Amino acid sequence: MTYDFDSLVERRGSGCVKWDLCPPDVIPMWVADMDFPTAPCIVEALRKRVEHGVFGYTVVPDSYYDAVISWFSRRRGWTIQRDWILYTTAVVPALSVCIKAFTEPGDKVVFITPAYNCFFSSVRNAGCVASESPVIYSRDGGVLTVSIDWEDLERRCADPSARVLLLCNPHNPVGRIWTPEELVRLGELARRYGLVVLSDEIHCELEMPGQRFTPFAAVSPENLACSVTMNSPSKSFNTASLQIANIICSRADWRERIDRVINIYEVCDVGPFGIVGLQAAYNEGEEWLSQLNAYIWENYCLLRSMFAAELPSCPVTSLQATYLAWVDVSALGRGSQEIVDSLIACEHVRPGPGILYGDDRFLRINLACPRSLCEEGLKRIVAGLKRFL
Ligand SMILES: Cc1ncc(COP(=O)(O)O)c(C=O)c1O
To answer: Which residues are CB-contacts of 211 (< 8 A; sequence separation ≥ 6)?
Structure first.
């Protein structure tokens, strides 16, 4: 079966953050969700559940755990035991819960920047201090590749007030999949200085062709023992509003701490749609996902060729995963928010400003939309950026 990613679905008026928070003529390429309907197997499973018609309190069935375990075993060769899995409402609550569980106010949380904006807010909300380790960019023609500044990262991990190393794998917004070698090294670093690794792997299924994601905890028993993984099918299957995520941790004593915070913050109850949607995604969604990834890759290739042809002074970060392109617009000599404001006002297109992710030199462009819309949005962005040259 070939799935349709080309058709435009009207999202305006559906209570949609991405579209309904933009003026009516603006193409939104900012918040990280997709304009594609989710996989038909998920829609079908939800339809059946809706038709049942009773939506009282819900228990998470064995088949839910089986779906999670089978998915990671089939796709990553990672054996997860059932009692390692704690479910919760979404990945950001999972992240905040885990930071709370392993820190005291004033402690430092180390992470690689730029970073997903909620990393900054979750750390702040826990009363902790962000210790930001900026990546290193290398430019080759119109393409940027990203690497970890190991010296800087080690200095930050060695700080006696550092408690947690918060990873994003694959990384939003730079689109890197950390290699098994890098994951081994990150694990060694964390253990050397007694840090708990919290690994946010929500983007892990959005692998671009030829790329392979490895979970941090699957690399070695040592990495498993010093880490907590947070995951959800929500990013890859575009089901963020179904509100379901998993925290996976092999250590019973750590799970107890996490479970306590989950209960303190009352994020322990999930709904039937999240449960049903996750099982449909993990049991039947593989083929849809692989076609989705191929489609996103073509959108990214379009962006690359447009920037190479029209804006060679703005290099594009190489994309290994996710549908978020990270583009260096520092040559324009303006702040990223000013650029975005001008793109909204003059070109009617809205990418994300890099400042939101901790780097004012960049724009983040969401490519997860039908090709025709993507092409039009990119044309508008290119035209708007060229005005600043
Ligand atoms: C790295 C990362 N973690 C978490 C989230 C949000 O997860 P959730 O909607 O499950 O809270 C996002 C959304 O873009 C993300 O990029």
So the answer is: 177, 320, 321
Domain boundaries, the chain: 17-40+286-386, 53-284
Mean pLDDT for each consecutive 10-residue tract of the chain (389 residues)?
94 97 96 98 98 96 98 98 98 98 98 98 98 98 97 98 98 98 98 98 97 98 98 98 98 98 94 98 98 98 98 98 98 98 98 98 98 98 96
For 193-203, how does the pLDDT look when each residue is reduced to its tens digit (9 = 90+)?
999 999 999 99
Atom 13 (ligand 1) nearest CA: 32
- Within 6 Å (CB) of ligand 1, which residues are found? 32, 90-92, 116, 168, 172, 200, 202, 232, 234, 240, 245
Q: Which atom of ligand 1 is nearest to the CA of 322?
A: 16
Predicted TM-score (pTM) above 0.90 = yes
How many whole angstroms from 108 Cα to the centroid of ligand 1? 21
What are the φ and ψ backbone dihedral angles of 77, each rounded to 5 degrees?
Answer: 65, 25
Ligand 1 centre to CA of 236 (Å) is 11
Pick the CATH number of 53-284 from 3.40.190.10, 3.40.50.300, 3.40.630.30, 3.40.640.10: 3.40.640.10
* Domain range 17-40+286-386, its CATH number among 1.20.1440.20, 1.10.10.60, 3.40.50.360, 3.90.1150.10: 3.90.1150.10
